Amino acid sequence: MALGDLEREVMTQLWDSAEPLTVRQVHEGLSRDRDLAYTTVMTVLDRLAKKGVVVQQKADRAYRYTPAQTREEMTASVMLDALTASPDQDAALAYFVGRLPPSALAAAIEAAKKR
Amino acid sequence: MTALLLGALGLTLSLVVPGILANADWPDRAPAAAVFLWQAITLAGVLCALGVVLAAPEELTRTSDKPFGAAALVAALVVAAVIVLRLLWSLYGVSKRSRVRRERHRLLVDLLDRVEQRQELGADNVRVLQGALPLAYCVPGREARVVLSDGVLQVLDRPEIDAVLAHEQTHLRHRHEVVMESFTAFYRAVPRPLRSRAPLDAVHLLLEMVADDAASRRTGPGPLRAALERLSDAVPLAEGVAADPKGDARRRRMARLAVSHTRSVGLNAVVTAAALGLLVLPTVILVVPWLGEALDKWPLR
């Protein structure tokens, strides 16, 4: 399995869980229907923590991991980033529909959440 | 005399021509050639500025004594170097910022991807975000992504989605981000009072048209038109604020998709020739005679 897929599945586990998970818990969740090394899961969690999308907490002598943002928060911030791209700063992303002015953004995202 | 002519040409290219070109209708019929023309205008403008800087001191001091001429020459070389370095530095900054931002963005869309919703879309660089806000865009780079929100999947039917995907894949395949990055870098390198957004906005729109053309060749103009219409309508806007103030960009894209598509070969050829001429002619007409004359009298020989 590609690393990207594994990272995504680890995140999904963390998002779906009500509380922070240990490496063992994530490993158990993922290795139910496949063969997966414990250390691989540990490495993936470590990488995600380094990238700042996962937060590592130490409790009862074990590390627990929790997402830095909920799925909804992260989706909203990705969309905000996509919509605020202004070509006079950088030219990071290209669009199908035109850019939105910042003032319209909050309204757009609010409206999208309500539906 | 050469410096004066180069200066006049440079000012015309940077102050007069962009305004005319940005308001013209004909670039819509040959968008790719028009992008090339914008590049030629910008580059020729820079070359004129460099030409003025190098030619003026030499021309002004031609009659005076050697040490003064030498000092003028050194000063001219320094100014020219500053112009070139400023452009390169700006390009470095813009591409680095863009790359960092894209990498972060790609990481997040990969993590948020709703795999089950895109199984049937085919391409493996497509990612689907959860959310009713209809969004379709691409994240260029070494591992490029096309991102759709499930708002898009709900609002559009399959041929329309294919048209949107074809449009975005064209941006990626043709490396449009490199063109935008260079124009952004140029914009930011120009001192503030002289800056103009006209080239930036015009080229942005023209690249959208290039991608529209490629998509419409693939799926026909119908689905693309419908997709454009639905996506722009579906984005809820705050009252009194429009994504594109005059509605101009969208109107122009729609208008050219409405007429039956005949590629204007003649116009393309003329525009391309004009762009080439702009790059070559000033150099040949103005600089070569000056260079011959200057080399004879250059003080540092």
From TrEMBL, chain A:
InterPro entries: BlaI_family (IPR005650), WH-like_DNA-bd_sf (IPR036388), WH_DNA-bd_sf (IPR036390). Pfam families: Penicillinase_R. The keyword Transcription regulation applies. SUPFAM superfamilies: Winged helix' DNA-binding domain. Signal peptide: none annotated. GO terms for biological process: negative regulation of DNA-templated transcription. Keywords: DNA-binding, Transcription, Transcription regulation. GO terms for molecular function: DNA binding. Belongs to the BlaI transcriptional regulatory family. This is Transcriptional regulator. It comes from Paractinoplanes tereljensis. The lineage of its organism: Bacteria, Bacillati, Actinomycetota, Actinomycetes, Micromonosporales.
TrEMBL record, chain B:
GO terms for molecular function: metal ion binding; metalloendopeptidase activity. It is a multi-pass membrane protein. The keyword Transit peptide does not apply. One of its GO terms (biological process) is proteolysis. Gene3D superfamilies: Metalloproteases ('zincins'), catalytic domain. The chain crosses the membrane at residues 32-56, 68-92, 269-291. It comes from the Bacteria. Its cofactor is Zn(2+). Coiled coil: none annotated. It is found in: Cell membrane. Belongs to the peptidase M48 family. PANTHER family: PROTEASE HTPX. This is Integral membrane protein. The lineage of its organism: Bacteria, Bacillati, Actinomycetota, Actinomycetes, Micromonosporales.
